[in-house]
Amino acid sequence: MGSGDYGPYGKSQPFSSTYHVVKSMLKQDKEKGIYNGYYQKNPTANKLVDMINGNYIGNKHNTIDMPYVIAKNGDIIVGKRNGNGKDGLPTPHPTLIGGKDPEVIMAGIVHIHGGKIASYDSNSGHFKPNSKSMAAAEAAFSKLPNKLFKKKRG
Fold first, then answer.
1. Residue 124 structural domain
2. How many CB atoms are closer than 10 A to CB 85?
């Protein structure tokens, strides 16, 4: 394993094929009541492929930044960040998978503008993926049709 690198949430986890929630975030989630022995699944969590509507993610007016995770089976799962958690609690990245110990290949934010994927990144304070894991994001997103992207991929 390599050492971590630095991103918007501080030092990342060492490079790995999968990531678990970092201990400091798990502690905060326990204090906030977001984690009570498990993460409740975000009710807005959905496979990105299930949101495809012709040439768009949703529709041509859909402009949103959403957290995403790449599940261990390779599915890209997205959901709205806040407002739909149990008792109004936030719905962070681990809630896209839910469960006692969510494990993901990658996590970040997907930026959708005009129903097209404009970009995606590795910004997750809960999983703090290593930048080397962007290759896993590239592999997962590359399975989607080019017509769903704002800019054509090579």
1. 22-148
2. 20
| Closest to 147 (Cα-Cα) out of 50, 57, 48 | 57
Polymer length of the chain:
154
Six-digit token pair at 64?
Answer: 């949103």
- Are 43 and 78 in contact by the 8 Å Cβ rule? The answer is no
pTM for the predicted model, two decimal places: 0.91
**pLDDT tens digits for 106-154?**
999 999 999 999 999 999 999 999 999 999 999 999 999 999 999 865 5
Instruction: Name the residue with tokens 């997962």.
Output: 140
C-beta of residue 104 within 8 angstroms of C-beta of residue 67: no
Distance, CA of 5 to CA of 90 (rounded, Å): 27
Query: How many CB atoms within 10 Å of residue 152?
Result: 7
Alpha helices in the chain (DSSP H): 23-32, 134-141
User: Is 98 a domain residue?
Assistant: yes
- Backbone angles phi and psi of 131, in degrees to 5: -60, -25
- How many separate domains does the chain show? 1
In a domain, 6, yes or no: no
